[in-house]
User: What shape does this take?
Amino acid sequence: MMRWRSRQWVITLTIVAPVLAAAVYLVLFQTGDRPASSALTEALGGDDLEGYARVTGPRALRFPEDHGPHPDYRNEWWYYTGQLSDEQGREFGFQVTFFRIALSPEPIREPAPWRTRQLYMGHFALTDIEGERFYAFERFARGTDELAGAQADPYRVWLGGWQAQALAHTPDEALFPHRLSLAADRVALDVVLDDVLGRVAHGDNGYSRKGPGRGDASMYYAYPRLQAEGQLRLGEKRYAVTGTAWMDREWSTSVLAEHQVGWDWFALQLDDGSALMVYQLRDQAGRPDEFGYGAYLDAGGVVQQLAHDEVELEVVRRWRSDESGRRYPVAWRLAVPRLDLSLAIEARLDHQEWTATVPYWEGAVRISGERHGETVSGRGYVELTGYD
Assistant: This one.
């Protein structure tokens, strides 16, 4: 946990309500020595939800509006991961996430330039696979006066100098191609992303149930296969890079139920042009519950949704962080019998742990296996939360 002096500075800076409605991973404002998984459950669930909009059932996705912010919901994120390589074959992984957190459900009664009920948090990470280094950066800003914010048309999400921005205006989508540009300390990323497979609306047309209660759900869609091309800077060296990326969009007020402590999320891109997303939600004993889900896209963009009991996931190896003491899985076997798919998944680098606001693991992985008896390989990202 951060010291009180640091928390007090952030709270003063952002004019925070007495009781925060925090977002994913955001335990910056929690007090005491509760484990991170407990605080995560409170941040993405909890009882202090009165007045916020809730995701309680399917509704039609609306574009370009849904690419922009949904300020009446408590939590929202624009999430990117990808793996890149230069002409010599040097490989990198990246993660970029813009979070929006509503601090209060009540509108501002007396608007002023510095008053806001929205807080933005940004995460930017780079994995240098050859150099065996993991770089991670975090920023916060209030959602006002050009410090941070989001808009749908034309698409733009920004936090200081970090931003994702559409390069062309298309009224139905206003999204691709767009540019992702960030710089922090010795690391910078500047890539253009374009869609390859199309959009996937997870669950029931984007309505993604995460728990048994009314409102334990999110609106969730993704672009599971993007082409990436641009520049990467690491220290004084610059690399021209190409590769693949993934974009997720999700908003909600209550995602985790009381019995859930975190999730294991897999975004996998195979070399046959297909993509697979799988997540499982874990209880306090570490067991997956019935609200896990998956979606497989073939190379033509045809989607097959997968129920929790259609995915077999086994941990093969774990790694303990010297910094946090937490123990994370870093190698798995994943099988989907209905697809005749069997995969081995392993971290490109064990140490890809975030230890800023709250510890979690988010990292690049390699994939090998078989589908219909034919060899497949690929790359992807895995996110692990709620490990104590």
